[in-house]
Amino acid sequence: MTTLHFHPDPAPAIEAALHAAGRPRLFVVADDNTARLCMPRLADTSPAVADAVLLTVRPGDEAKTLGAAESLWQRLTDAGATRRSMILNLGGGMVTDLGGFVAATFKRGVPYMNVPTTLLGAVDAAVGGKTAVNFAGLKNQVGVFAQPAATFVSTCFLSTLPERELLSGYGEMLKHALLNGPGSLSAILDCHITSIDPSTLLPLLRESVATKEKIVAADSTEQGLRKALNLGHTAGHAIEELALAAGHPVPHGYAVAWGLVVALVLSHTERGMSTQWLYAVADGVRSHYGPMPVECSDYPALLALMAHDKKNSTPGSINFTLLDAPGCPAIDCTATPEAITTAFDIARDLV
Ligand code: GLY
What is the pLDDT of residues 138-189, one digit of tens each? Predict the structure, then answer.
């Protein structure tokens, strides 16, 4: 499994990990922004990073393409990278997904490490070994499961992130807290993510990542339990895709947060989960993210998007991960279109 490191500053731990790995030749994959803003900070205190070959890609999810992967494979070839090299991905989810995919496929696999620079990356994309590029207009369509050798979660890059980025990561932290249990959930609902100090954030990150890592350790290729990590994502992805198609994109974690409220309503109506946590989470989601950008007239389009989700087990049925209670996920649940639209009605009333 991946070694996870949690430090305010990741550079000493990266240096130590590279030393323990026999000082492999290092290639850093970064986007233009993280190369400019984050790389110098690491290079200042890590000689190995300062000496690394820097490979940059364009920023933004639209740059997560096979063409970008091919360009990285070419530059690795030109620079003489081998299976004994190490790739270090420095960036948000786009960089860790793309860099992980390139590492997993180049010469049938070069070891790689992740240094996430966004909150969303730290709690989700950089952990768990899902790597991919977008293809044919579909997100993450081509990829492999390949665990990073190490992931370095730190708070040093988070203090300059815009509020929207922090809130996007917080949506996934809320999901992990719901999967972990009432204690985690209370701690996450009580924290003020946009003004939190790094020493308070780091233990919350540790707990959030540990929740994901425990699930991934039990089911790394999503045959069963890992589907619990899809909590909030059935409705959330549909909200995200609808907003994108309407020309008003919403950050992934915002859509997940609204999707969590829909999933908790269904958890109550379909599985009898108590309303106590539904109301508490809906209050938190309303105060952080505002109303869900969905009208009743959007329901047919949302149902169509959910019916086409690649995670559905049978054509036409809509799969959800629900909760019997915080900490007790129920995977492979289905709900009728009527139950789903009622859940959207209630969720929209609550947020
Ligand atoms: N983002 C959910 C997972 O890694 O399975």
Answer: 889 999 999 999 999 999 999 889 999 999 999 999 999 999 999 999 999 9
Q: What is the pLDDT of residues 200-236, one digit of tens each?
A: 999 999 999 999 999 999 999 999 999 999 999 999 9
Mean pLDDT across the chain: 96
Do 113 and 147 touch, CB atoms closer than 8 A? no
Regarding the beta carbon of 130 and ligand 1, being less than 6 Å apart is answered yes
* Nearest one of 175, 184, 130, 179 to 330, comparing CA atoms: 179
User: Of all residues in the chain, what percent carry a pLDDT higher than 90?
Assistant: 95
Task: Tell me the helix, strand and coil percentages in the chain, rounded to 5.
Answer: 55, 15, 30
Residue 229 Cβ < 6 Å to ligand 1: yes
Place of tokens 């494979």: 73
Distance 62 CA to ligand 1 centre (A): 20
Ligand 1: does its nearest atom lie under 6 Å from the Cβ of 124? yes
Q: How far apart are CA 126 and CA 57, in angstroms?
A: 17
Structure tokens at 345: 């009605």
CA-angle at 100, arms to 330 and 53, nearest 5°: 155
Task: Assess whether the C-beta atom of 165 lies below 6 angstroms from ligand 1.
Answer: no
Handedness of CA 199, 205, 264, 181 (dihedral sign): negative
Q: How confident is the model at residue 1 (pLDDT cuts 50, 70, 90)?
A: confident
Rounded to 10 degrees, what is the CA torsion of 271, 347, 228, 257? -160
Task: Name the region of 55 (left: φ>0; alpha: ψ -120 to 50; beta: rest).
Answer: beta
Q: Is 24 in contact with 86 (CB distance < 8 Å)?
A: yes
Buried b (16+ CB within 10 A) or exposed e, 89-111: bbbbbbbbbbbbbbbbbbeeebb
pTM confidence score: 0.95
